[in-house]
């Protein structure tokens, strides 16, 4: 089914090195997350310059194309065209691209793959639980006895209780285990304590760490004489145990797949996988992972307890930096683990003001700048930031301007420090931005477990903190921000007065020569939206009369695509030129193309770059119309060319002012 993002999807696929360069594709709230065989084949600068793409980040073993709010629609369009593996991993631990990933890269990649699919529902159900807590506060405890409360609470809390099942599904997808086998393991964890309460009703053993409770466990029943150690809190809503259990089961399943005859694999492999994995998960993996969960919670409490102001400042100040590199995934599971083990989170929650100070900075720039383009970028960035999606604000506005970004890091740190000083906690996962405010309302369980008397304390306090740091950020950015546009405006005025005089940017009277002989047509006639819409740059197209492409100016080959169907040149006149031979010719995989130079080669105007067999390409059903674009046209006052005429290679084609 056609999508308005099909053109953008084609640009993305082509410039990540083509379908054959993609190991897998996933997405989070704002980014397409590619695993590529060879990141050097990706044309990062073209992607960054494409409308609809905020920026490109290479981090955590992933090639991340930041889209913004439309990421889901763009992901669907990209996958519809490319039919990629959308598991988020190639399953080979990084060996698919010939490179070994570091431990940090593997960890971030794993956490991203496991948690991304369920974040939306975690946010949605968390908001419901928070609003129900507010309803009980306003309407009284009697509201808890109504059918309305019960059904809504089942929606909100049901997902959290069965969180191990949800995580089992996404973890199975990540670790290449049969999805239903993984879910069966999680079901066994949850079913055992409901159906056989004796397992968890033994003598309670309390272990302490950092002078606090580390883990409470019960030992009563045995399995083949081995004691079953059961966390007193059970496995409902737990995070870490099921992830480890699924990882182990995936290893077991691969072993059985190798040794079991094909004729009985269908039912024997899952049976043997469960028979081995579930008992070991109950006896070893579950308890160890639960202790690890308790240790993480205890460590966060210890760090926070040592100095909550410093802890809050560091989390708040560094959060946006972590987001830029996609490294915030390392802390997201910590927050969910704290909800599970402690009933609240004060540690990671200190990041809450970060999105709001970004929006305050963008608002100040929006109201002060006279740059029309910057204003047009600021409005959607502000709206996205209010909803907690800050990538458009960071990549499009504050980070390029540098000083506003530094200011927001400082004020977010101040906000986090104040939250630490006042002990502000969130009690459930929720949405981002304004949609997370209900998460600061204690759930009924938290109220009972923690003895909370002032139900509105955290919500009231965090609202005042957010307001204060937003005002602080707005004022600082307002008084420190300055447009740098007057100089460019003067240069533009001078250029308009003397358009054909030698400019500092021009190498040869500001011209780009025709790289191929043929008939010149407007880009609007090109049968590809990516070119005809102008999203890739300004220029014209040539219907070739011969199969030879020559250098249109002196410069350096910035990109010679391995398939030979396209070449990028950075001219000595500072123009970045893209010559794309034909439409969709990347699908020929280099057939009928013969590149004569390599990436990085220095060329002179008129040097032969590529030869191609026009007739064979046409016979294969492809249009040979060749766009010639200046992809960094925004760096110049004007890029124009005359159409409707015949040219020979070397004739003047485009004028650059």
TrEMBL record:
It comes from the Bacteria. Residues 528-632 form the PTS EIIA type-1 domain. GO terms for cellular component: plasma membrane. One of its GO terms (molecular function) is protein-phosphocysteine-trehalose phosphotransferase system transporter activity. Its main location: membrane. It is an enzyme of class 2 (transferase). The keyword Phosphoprotein does not apply. This is Beta-glucoside-specific PTS transporter subunit IIABC.
């Amino acid at each position: 089914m056609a999508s308005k993002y099909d053109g953008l999807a084609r640009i993305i696929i082509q410039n990540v090195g083509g379908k054959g360069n993609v190991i897998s594709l996933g997405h989070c709230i704002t980014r397409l997350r590619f695993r590529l065989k060879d990141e050097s084949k990706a044309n990062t600068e073209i992607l960054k310059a494409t409308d609809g793409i905020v920026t490109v980040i290479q981090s955590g073993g992933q090639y991340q194309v930041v889209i913004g709010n439309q990421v889901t629609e763009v992901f669907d369009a990209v996958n519809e065209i490319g039919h990629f593996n959308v598991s988020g991993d190639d399953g080979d631990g990084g060996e698919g691209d010939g490179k070994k990933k570091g431990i940090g890269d593997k960890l971030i990649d794993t956490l991203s793959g496991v948690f991304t699919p369920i974040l939306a529902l975690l946010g949605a159900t968390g908001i419901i639980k928070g609003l129900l807590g507010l309803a009980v506060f306003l309407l009284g405890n009697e509201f808890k006895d109504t059918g309305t409360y019960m059904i809504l609470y089942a929606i909100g809390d049901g997902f959290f209780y069965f969180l191990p099942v949800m995580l089992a599904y996404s973890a199975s997808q990540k670790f290449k285990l049969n999805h239903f086998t993984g879910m069966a393991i999680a079901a066994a964890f949850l079913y055992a304590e409901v159906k056989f309460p004796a397992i968890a009703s033994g003598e309670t053993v309390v272990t302490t760490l950092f002078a606090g409770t580390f883990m409470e466990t019960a030992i009563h029943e045995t399995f083949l004489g081995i004691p079953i150690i059961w966390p007193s809190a059970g496995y409902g809503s737990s995070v870490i145990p099921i992830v480890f259990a699924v990882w182990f089961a995936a290893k077991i399943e691969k072993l059985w797949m190798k040794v079991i005859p094909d004729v009985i694999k269908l039912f024997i492999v899952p049976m043997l996988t469960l028979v081995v994995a579930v008992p070991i998960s109950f006896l070893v993996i579950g308890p160890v992972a639960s202790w690890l969960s308790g240790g993480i919670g205890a460590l966060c409490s210890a760090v926070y307890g040592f100095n909550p102001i410093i802890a809050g400042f560091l989390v708040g100040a560094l959060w946006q930096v972590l987001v830029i590199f996609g490294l915030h995934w390392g802390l997201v599971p910590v927050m969910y683990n704290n909800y599970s083990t402690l009933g609240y989170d004060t540690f990671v929650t200190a990041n809450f003001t970060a999105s709001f100070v970004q929006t305050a900075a963008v608002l100040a720039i929006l109201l002060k700048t006279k740059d029309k383009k910057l204003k047009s970028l600021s409005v959607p960035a502000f709206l996205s930031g209010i909803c907690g999606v800050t990538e458009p604000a960071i990549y499009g506005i504050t980070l390029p301007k540098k000083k506003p970004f530094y200011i927001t890091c400082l004020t977010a740190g101040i906000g986090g420090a104040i939250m630490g000083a006042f002990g502000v906690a969130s009690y459930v996962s929720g949405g981002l931005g304004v949609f997370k405010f209900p998460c600061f309302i204690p759930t009924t369980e938290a109220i009972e477990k923690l003895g909370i008397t002032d139900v509105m304390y955290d919500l009231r306090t965090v609202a005042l903190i957010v307001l204060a740091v937003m005002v602080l950020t707005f004022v600082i950015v307002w008084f420190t921000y300055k447009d740098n546009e007057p100089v460019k405006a003067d240069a533009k005025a001078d250029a308009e007065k003397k358009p054909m005089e030698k400019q500092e940017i021009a190498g040869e009277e500001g011209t780009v020569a025709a790289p191929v002989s043929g008939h010149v047509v407007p880009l609007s006639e090109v049968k590809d939206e990516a070119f005809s819409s102008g999203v890739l740059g300004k220029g014209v197209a040539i219907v070739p009369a011969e199969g030879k492409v020559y250098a249109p100016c002196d410069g350096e080959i910035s990109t010679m695509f391995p398939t030979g169907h396209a070449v990028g040149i950075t001219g000595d006149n500072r123009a970045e030129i893209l010559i794309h031979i034909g439409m969709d010719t990347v699908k020929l995989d280099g057939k009928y193309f013969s590149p004569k130079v390599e990436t990085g080669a220095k060329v002179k105007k008129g040097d032969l770059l590529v030869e191609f067999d026009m007739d064979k390409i046409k016979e294969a059903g492809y249009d040979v119309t060749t766009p010639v674009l200046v992809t960094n046209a925004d760096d110049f006052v004007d890029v124009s060319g005359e159409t409707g005429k015949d040219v020979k290679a070397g004739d003047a084609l485009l004028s650059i002012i």
